[in-house]
SDR family NAD(P)-dependent oxidoreductase (Rhodococcus oryzae), 283 residues
Amino acid sequence: MPKTVVVTGANSGIGLAMAHELAARGATVCLACRNQAKAEAAREEIARRTPGAKVDVLSLDLSSFEHIHRFATDLAARHERVDALINNAGASPLKQQFTAEGFELQFGANYLGPFLLTHLLLPQLRLAAEQTGDARIVHVASVAHNIGRIDADTFRGRSKYRPFPAYAQSKLANLMFNYALARRLPDGLSTHAMHPGGVDSDIYRELPRAVHAALRPFLISADRAGRLGAELALSPEYRERSGEYLTAQRPNPVSRRARDVAAQEALYAESAVLAGVEPLPRR
Ligand SMILES: NC(=O)c1ccc[n+]([C@@H]2O[C@H](COP(=O)([O-])OP(=O)(O)OC[C@H]3O[C@@H](n4cnc5c(N)ncnc54)[C@H](OP(=O)(O)O)[C@@H]3O)[C@@H](O)[C@H]2O)c1
């Protein structure tokens, strides 16, 4: 049965590479993107590389709960079943910014928005799990989680904002969500986290030129990371491996904080309150 895969932030970098790979493997790809002009350009690029590719474009801004709800409604009207959701979109602004609900942008848009989105898409994912026995959620986390700390006092902003601790917290939260979700999802619906590697993408666009130039030799291509994302979404190899965290570039240690089950559960419960969703019970 043909698969439908939603990729957030699919108009550039790793998300676009995933979309190319998924389209080449015959999936219908929904590009869930903030910037519609870039999303249309991505659709054309995918069609050029994979003639006959099935690509849909939908508007999604993860920095607004209202927008996320609207996206979920639009998606449900167009795709009854979702076989995989890839929570890829992420940002790392150098200056502190906030979501529409007043959360610090990296916590809000990199973590809390995808948390809400995942819960809103569960009906379509569950339907896919019932019909095919195989539906998946993929979280793009990062090796940066290793220096992250979950600190509720920073969720709505930091008095002394430094971008990297804020980014690391959001990526730690992505990984902890993966573990908490693995204890909750029904049979046939699995969750997977990945570190894409240090990838040469636009995420470094705000870095000073010299820093970016020094970093570049150590970065891998978005295509390599995109292949892992597509594999986690589609490959039979990962079907029974819910809760795992994989990487496209080693080494990739998992921090003690990320593995702390009590902390995962506390974050899950608090996030459900913040995002206004009914928490899923543990199996
Ligand atoms: N590159 C790396 O070395 C690296 C390493 C570890 C993890 N990651 C993770 O990989 C993921 C993809 O990053 P990338 O490297 O491919 O960077 P990228 O090229 O900058 O792509 C980021 C994507 O996220 C989208 N996005 C940002 N804020 C959004 C929002 N509020 N709502 C909806 N979409 C939003 C961007 O959309 P716009 O075009 O509208 O800005 C863009 O499509 C991120 O989660 C990042 O944290 C990257």
User: Anything to note?
Assistant: The chain has a mean pLDDT of 97.
